Amino acid sequence: MGELFRRFWLPALVSHEVADRNGPPIRIRLLGEDLVAFRDSTGTVGIIGAHCPHRLAPLFFGRNEEGGLRCAYHGWKFDVNGTCLDMPNEPPERQFKQRITQTAYPTREQGGVVWVYMGPKEVMPDRLPQFEWAQAPEGHQFVAKWLQRTNWCQGMEGEIDTSHISFLHSMKEVYNPEALVAQSPSVLENAALDGAPRLTLLETPYGFNYGSRRTYKDQYYWRVTRWLFPMYSLIPGTANGGAGRCWVPVDDEHTFTFHYQSRDDRPFDDDEIAQFYKGGGFPPRMERTKYMLRDGNVIDTWVPTARIENDYLIDREMQRDVNFTGIWGVNEQDRSLQEGMRPIVDRSKEHLGTADIAVLSARRLLLNMAKKLMKGEEPRPPHDPESYNLRPLEVIDPQDDFRSILEKYDATLGAAAF
Ligand code: FES
Ligand SMILES: [Fe+2]
Asked: How far is it, in rounded angstroms, from Cα 25 to Cα 239?
């Protein structure tokens, strides 16, 4: 599966993590590889091996100088391409420096995100996936990242598990939702009206469309989620442009979750951004800190405040009187269960039902793609970047057939969907 991920451009950083030219490097791990990211004097972001090829000292402690990162131990210096620019502790006539390169991966920046490609050069996609949020003008998108302490797949699977919304994210016990809808007819409360949605899934070359149909008065409340290879979601319920998340594997037991959303009418204002960071939705409440991974390597990231060590700040009174979980934010609710499933779920012990078709489909599609890659067949979606330019869909409509809903609304998503 790691090889498959290496065929895609992946979000690696939020651009402001490496805001300054010649600013401090930051430590990350992606696909199990320890890396250091820095913005050089020209503004290009380098993502290179975390440990110096001389004696494996951490380059994090190095100096980000004119044109490259210089190791603090003996002064070897590397640029964003991994070229060794200087080796001051060796005589120049040995030409040792020409024989040394550091691991380095190509990066691009778009939509407030630094993207990285960690696969073979000869099959590198020319362009980034053309997500609407990533192409939006500066300020029209909001992106945040945080650490989830599970395998990437658990986070991704939670996203396409639409039936949990009526329970986990419900504002009160799900069996008496009418009163709540009357108070505040929000998306989640609409969903609570019918806890057993009828689910339909239509596969596409980029992944699948996943429709849930709930009875709503004398019509249907349709939610259409997009799932795109290898782990992106586009989720309805956010005004004007949609929102979604993706799960970038740090290693088998940790994940960087990226949240993205955009609006096409105007930039987000400061109040809206401040509201996002309060943690009611995405991102969760979080702090910028260091996090030590199991093998002692440290990464620099945002770590959620509500976490397994403090029971996600569960409030049992709130659980009795206010919401279903007693846990405050939407992502905090998700993570309490996903992380509590333990870092890697033993899927042989699951009992999946009809509500789990999207989870089953995503697993099957990904495993098929990975198996084909093992036989030498390259995946197509990374080379079809336009197919990522989609919106999720949320409508109330009398039509009961999913295909008809897609036909009716997909062509006019901008106006009709929200
Ligand atoms: S370990 Fe980096 S220069 Fe020696
Ligand atoms: Fe959720």
From this structure: 36
Ligand nearest the Cα of residue 51 is 1
Nearest-CA residue for ligand 1 atom 4 is: 74
- Domain CATH number, residue 101: 2.102.10.10
- Ligand 2 center from residue 330 Cα (angstroms): 6
Q: Which of 123, 144, 178 is the last residue of a domain?
A: 123
Q: Do 158 and 291 belong to one domain?
A: yes
H-only helix segments in 229-384:
270-276, 316-321, 330-340, 357-374
| Residues within a 6 A CB radius of ligand 1 | 52, 54-55, 57, 71, 73-76
pLDDT along the chain (418 residues), means of 10: 98 97 98 98 98 98 97 98 97 92 98 98 97 94 97 95 84 50 46 72 93 86 92 80 91 98 92 94 96 97 98 95 92 97 95 93 98 98 94 88 89 41
Asked whether the beta carbons of 68 and 77 are under 8 A apart, the reply is yes
Domain boundary (74, 104, 123) is at: 123
CATH number, domain of 353, equals: 3.90.380.10
* Ligand 1 atom nearest to 56, measured from its CA: 1
Atom of ligand 1 nearest to the CA of 75: 3
- Ligand 2 centroid–CA 74 distance in Å is 49
Which residues make Cβ contacts (< 8 Å) with residue 295, sequence separation at least 6? none
Domain hosting 101: range is 2-123
| 3 state SS of 26 | strand
Report helix, strand or coil for 215: strand
